[in-house]
Each structure stands twice: as C-alpha cells, then as structure tokens.
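Ticket #4471: structure output looks truncated?

Reporter: J.K.
Steps to reproduce: submitted the chain below (284 residues) through the standard prediction queue, then opened the result file.
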Amino acid sequence: MDFLLGAAAACGAVIVSNPMDVLKTRMQLQGELKERGRYSIIYKNIFHAAFAVGQADGLSGLQKGLGPALGYQIVMNGIRFGLYQKILDSGIISLSDGSTSTLGCVIAGAGVGVLGGFFGSPLYLVKTHLQSQAVESIAVGYQHNHQSVSSALIKIAKQDGLKGLWRGASTSIPRVGIGSASQLFTYSKSKDWLDHYELYPRDSWQSTFTGAMASGLVIALCMSPFDVISTRIYNQGLDSKGRGLLYNGIADCVAKIFKTEGLWGFYKGILFSKMYIKNINRGT
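Returned output as attached by the reporter:
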C-alpha cells in the first residue's frame, strides 16, 4: 500500500510539474562546456523559456517526456517512499523518545533513494532524451530524435544492449542518494521539531506541508550539481564504440564543467529545480 500511495502521489504531482522539468533540462544543457558569453542564450529566464518552448513546439512541447517521467516516478518514488515507510514503521531508526535518528534518516533515505533511482534509470534516460528534443531554433544539447518512448527503449537496447538502458545509472547513486537523504532527513526532522515545540501535531496536515516545503528547499540546493551532471551524462551522444562524446564518467564531467562553465555551471536551472521539487513534495 505504501508503494502504491507513494507512486500515485508522485505521478499526480509530475503531471503539473513536468513542464518545469522540461525547462530545467533545457537550461542545464544550454551552453554545455562553453564559457559564459561564448554561446547564444536561447532561454533567458523562466518566463522566456516557457514562451520559447510554447511558441516553437506548442503547448505539448512543455509536456515532452511525460510518459517516461510518470513511469520513473512510479518506480523510483514507489520504492523510495514504500521502503522508507517500512523502515520507519519497523522502529529501526527510532529513538526512545519516539523521534527519528539523524544518522538513521540519512542512511535509510540514501539507501532507498539509490535503489529507486537504479531501477528507474532506463526511464530517466529516455525522459531526459525526450525532454531535450526540440525544433532546431531552440534546440540545446545532443538531439537523439526519438519518435516515442517504446522506440527509444528499443533503439537503445539494439544499439548498446540491455546495459545501454542503464547508461548513466552511476550518476543516479550520488544524485538520488544525496537528494533522497537530504529530503527525507529534512522532512522527518522538520516534523520532529514542530512536534517537539508543540507547534503542530506530527501527523497533521500543517506539519506535513511545512516538512515538505522545508525539504524541497534543502534538496534543491544539495541536489542541483548532481542533477546537472546526471542530465549531461544521460543526454550525451555516443561514438561508434558506445563511448560518450563529451564525458567518460562523473569525475570527467565535473572537471570539464568546472573548467569551462565555473561553479555556476553546476547550478544551471536551479530555479526550475526548486519549483519542480516543491510540486513533487506536494504529492507526497
């Protein structure tokens, strides 16, 4: 039941937040490995980006990748929240006063996040490819030109085998692990704090809402650099031997982004990240 509720809540939120995820992906790919001032700025800000996509691709362009995004949330959040709730109910990470262990929150949150991210990686891969696809006038990043979700999965599997569907999955370990740990830790501790000071009962809607908003801000700050790295590696093209055209791993990606784009390169699209995560949290 926890699996189904977690997945259903996340899917409901994704329908609303997917346009922001599309714009976030485009912003993260804009100016890839280029110094500021040496590339054309297609997306100037949140409003201009939404207008540019809507004008060029129509309103449907803002919902690109919705299918795999929904599938990813079912797998990732279903596993993540379902297992995390089981851990909470078991009392393994609970203290004698009923609050949650800080270390236990971090370890459990990271662990269930990594599991969910790994199993959902093929859908995240296709989601990223589809969200980056656009007409030439507003295209950024490598264009894979998939026709549909099913054709994308078949094409990748034929070209690179089943392991190709998990290309970039290694980036989900730090991305989802750190993101999940920071989110679930902040969420649980916020509710502990509100309950301790008797501001709101732990299971009240006010406590849940406050915890979700606090965790959304924290996760956006902690997760944004890993989200940029993940988007870049998932979306890059491959050569004839199946090797990435731009990056040969996480460390190489970090070094190249920092060298060409500076520290700010790791925070491209952070405003969209905050808005996207807040909407996802409202579904939880």
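Triage note (M.O.): checked the attachment and the full token line is present. The chain has a mean pLDDT of 85.
Status: closed, working as intended.
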